[in-house]
Write a structure and sequence with these properties.
With 351 residues, the protein is an alpha/beta fold. It folds into two domains: 5-173 and 211-237, 3-Layer(aba) Sandwich (Rossmann fold), CATH 3.40.50; 185-208 and 244-276 and 294-347, UDP-galactose 4-epimerase, domain 1, CATH 3.90.25. 35% of the residues lie in helices and 14% in strands. The protein has eleven helices and 14 strands. The protein has helices at residues 14-25, 58-64, 87-107, 140-159, 185-194, 214-223, 246-257, 281-287, 295-309, 329-332, 344-347; strands at residues 5-9, 29-33, 49-51, 70-73, 112-116, 162-168, 171-172, 200-202, 208-209, 212-213, 234-237, 244-245, 264-266, 275-276. Helix 2 packs across helix 3 and helix 5 (185-194) runs parallel beside helix 7 (246-257).
Length: 351
């Protein structure tokens, strides 16, 4: 395969850094950017031409994207629940940033643009979500993601750039930001339990999700750069089995950690979708997708990563724009910052 110059936004983040590793291993040249809102510097693989640039900085993007053959837009303030309370921040970094990325790619005559969207686009559609469904997003994040897809399609087809929309969902694995109180439920649970603290669960905990291990997503995402059958397609990426409730997720993690679980329940988050599960049939057909890592195996790898790196205090690094009686108390009262620490010995059974 001819060596390509691959540009990856969010390359210091979770998905972007793993994708960069895969392309470097195949001998491609990788350049990327990150604003560091949701990434770690040590996520950036050696060999990446890294630029600490925000995706909203169009002039800088246009400059550092020069010579790119393929662009992956992985960067996102992927805060579905928070977007109801910080809609300006989230949509600016979804719609505005995506538009800047697409514009810079077209200006640089990039051959193909792969946008990572979100299953938040489907909203209250019946499960499993299929790509032919009319999107019904329920929150500003999902609305922004769907709008960004439409902008990509419009501009790419106007100016002659190939496009693909990937719809990964609930990705888990090493390198995921785990000290973020606003997102990444599995990482939050693990980080809390490793500190001997009980997890908080929104609503009744019967929300159902499928979780996708990051390595399973990389192979189909890579093919989106080269497969002609993927051009002009929206494709769900991730497993469609092991559909579990958030309550069940907490129980599984507690068992893997040998932790005495007594979950704390708090009010539900406005606009949260109860059932969210994507069909993977199209990815299997077009890209040969195969889910190889089961949920428990993926959670064990996350536990090893967080334990080795060390549990961390949570950082409320994003400001709430709307603070009222509907704002989750975990955010309004900064409950994850509680100094209360029950000794781990009370909760962690002898190994």
């Amino acid at each position: 395969m001819t060596k390509q110059r691959i540009f990856i936004s969010g390359v210091a983040g979770f998905l972007g850094s793993h994708l960069a590793d895969a392309f470097l291993a195949d001998g491609h040249e990788v350049v990327g950017n990150d604003s560091m809102i949701g990434g770690y510097y040590d996520n950036v693989p050696a060999g990446v031409d890294f630029h600490e640039v925000d995706c909203n900085e169009f002039d800088r993007l246009k400059e550092i994207m020069q010579g790119a053959d393929i662009v992956y837009h992985c960067a996102a303030t992927a805060y579905e629940g928070l977007s109801v309370f910080s809609p300006h921040l989230v949509t600016q970094n979804i719609v505005g940033a995506s538009t800047a990325m697409v514009s810079a790619a077209i200006a640089n005559k990039c051959r193909r643009f792969v946008m990572c969207s979100s299953m938040a686009r489907y909203g209250t559609n019946p499960v499993p979500f299929t790509e032919d469904m009319t999107p019904k997003p329920q929150d500003p994040y999902g609305i922004g993601k769907y709008a960004a897809e439409q902008i990509l399609q419009n501009l790419a087809e106007t100016h002659g750039m190939e496009w693909v929309v990937a719809v990964p969902h609930n990705i888990i694995g090493p390198r995921q930001k785990y000290d973020d109180p606003y997102r990444n439920v599995a990482s939050i649970f693990i980080n809390l339990m490793l500190q001997g603290r009980q997890p908080y669960i929104y609503g009744d905990g019967n929300q159902m999700r499928c979780f996708s291990f990051v390595s399973d997503d990389i192979a189909p995402l890579k093919k989106m750069a080269f497969e002609q059958s993927a051009v002009g397609q929206v494709i769900n990426i991730g497993p469609d089995d092991e559909f579990v409730t958030i309550n069940e997720l907490a129980v599984i993690i507690a068992r893997l950690l040998n932790f005495d679980l007594e979950s704390k329940y708090t009010g539900g988050r406005p606009q949260e979708v109860m059932l969210a599960n994507c069909s993977a049939d199209k990815a299997r057909r077009l890209l040969g997708f195969e889910a190889k890592v089961k949920l428990e195996q993926g959670l064990l790898e996350m536990i090893d990563y967080i334990r080795t790196r060390g549990p961390r205090p949570f950082t409320y690094h994003l400001d709430l724009e709307i603070l009222n009686e509907k704002t989750p108390e975990t955010w309004a009262k900064h409950l994850f910052l509680s100094q209360e620490r029950t000794e781990a010995a009370k909760f962690l059974k002898a190994a």
